[in-house]
Amino acid sequence: MLQGKVALVTGSARGIGKAIARRLQAAGAIVILNDVLEAELKATLAEGVGHGAITADVSRREAVQAMVDQVVTEHGRLDIMVNNAGVEPKAPLLEMTDEQWQKAMDVNLTGVFLCTQIAARQMVRQGAGGRIIQISSIAGKNFLPNCSNYCASKAGVIGFTREAARELAPHKITVNAVCPGVIETHMTEAARNNPAMMEKWMREIPMKRLGQPEEVAGLVAFLASDEAAYLTGQALNVDGGKVPW
After folding, report:
1. Which of 112, 115, 212, 214 has the greatest number of CB atoms lying within 10 Å of its CB?
2. What is the dihedral of CA 187, 189, 192, 196, to 10 degrees?
3. pLDDT digits (tens, 9 = 90+) for 39-65
4. CATH of residue 57
5. In a domain? residue 173
């Protein structure tokens, strides 16, 4: 389905990003991993996930540019950009520090902007179109307690995706966002160990279970494929029906 396509997946040392990288690779793509977690990134690569790995901070323009340049130098092109890297520095609004607010914005929103812009410039130069897929969150449409920074950054990703899709459509580059709900990853581990939180989720999720990283990865693989060529500017939920829009 993606035979010979070159894909770069940020935040792919573990969790959803790792599942996405594995799925794209299974579909035939040449997958390059990225993360700031160098040891875990190397461990994932050692498992046979990915064809290479680059440690880089997506919130820094020079790091993103160097990363994309390296991918193109080593593999000749970039066809699929998956912007998955994200952080969730929690704090109640009245107690949130400037640093906690800015960290969420830097990684979750500015990182998506930088990776999208730099990847799109490369895709335009290639002249063959491309796929850019953002990993947002249902928190960008709904709410998440004590995470006003995270909610704002993920809502920003959705708005950015819509406009980027319009501007890049003439270049045959599609831009879509995937909005996971509660997925069984490292990021949700602490909450999943809280019985009260699990009970709350089971009341709110119509399918009465949590999602798996592979279920997010399946949608990403579809959006990266030729089958999704006429689908752009969308923010699609993978949440068991929790958020109905």
Report:
1. 112
2. -80
3. 999 999 999 999 999 999 999 999 999
4. 3.40.50.720
5. yes
